[in-house]
Amino acid sequence: MATLPFEKMRELDNRFSEIEARMAQGPSADVYVKLASEYSELEPVVAAIRNLQNTSSEIDDLKSLLDDRDIEEEMRTMAALELPELEARQSELEHAMQLMLLPKDAADEKSAILEIRAGTGGSEAALFAGDLFRMYERYAASRNWKVEIMSVSEGEVGGFKEVIAAITGKGVFARLKFESGVHRVQRVPETESGGRIHTSAATVAVLPEAEDIDIEVRNEDIRIDTMRASGAGGQHVNTTDSAVRLTHIPSGIVVTQAEKSQHQNRARAMQILRARLFDLERQKLDDERSADRRSQVGSGDRSERIRTYNFPQGRITDHRINLTLYKLDRMMVGEIDEVVDALIADHQATLLASLGETAGS
To answer: Is the entire prediction scored with pTM above 0.70?
Structure first.
């Protein structure tokens, strides 16, 4: 277990006390709002710090009692019984404190752009992409997040060749960022008369939604083309020049939007472009921080097969953490917290281990 950064804990406690004092002095409204925001972030951390300090003090007091031969035997017996419970509690509090003080991903609290594309497998892959989208849509509903489809290309027999959606809410990216990668499905298609299991795949990308302050997009770096929009199979046909294609010249990223409103298309295309550029910038920074950058969770490599959904066996396997659950039916209706929590816990364990190695070097 990594050593607790006691100096950092002292700094946080002192900063919290300083904020309390400044808020009590009645500062201007703008200053008060900033202080209140920092106060709310620090409050649970400082409460945990003080809880740990109090528990450690109680342990020291009990040990002093046990070492004092002048204390009557009954008191020492009670202290001996209480000590293991407090030490166990101290260990739990220390672990919780380590997790609280782990380096934060600045994008964790952001909303996200979800992109799902059918991969190998033809129509079955498009159907699976639709199943995945509904899974995330139901999960979002369970957390009171808002889902708005921004772009969609429907499959020939259902599902999606591609679907892009904005998922808005607090902490969306933190919960969904480990979903990026190749999702593989094994099942018998409805059109398969021989009962043979087919394997197909869909690619998922989860990008933190970028704001103006996160990424600067210069007008001279963008080429905007408008074109005549058309819909598949006679649906959503639009005979005006409303489709918009944005090309970011430096990166080569191209975003196309083809809904009914040209103005809305341009705004949505810019939103997707910002998210992709922000994601590209984040990946560059990650590459610089870690040359190999091959931790089993969070590599963000969208060519990497991360999960298999086996319908005949009702089994889902996340290959990054060797987690297998026989709850596929529950997963597909949006109950994905068990897998999400396991991925986050594994990521935290990896971070703790790396901090321990850094402290030991």
So the answer is: no
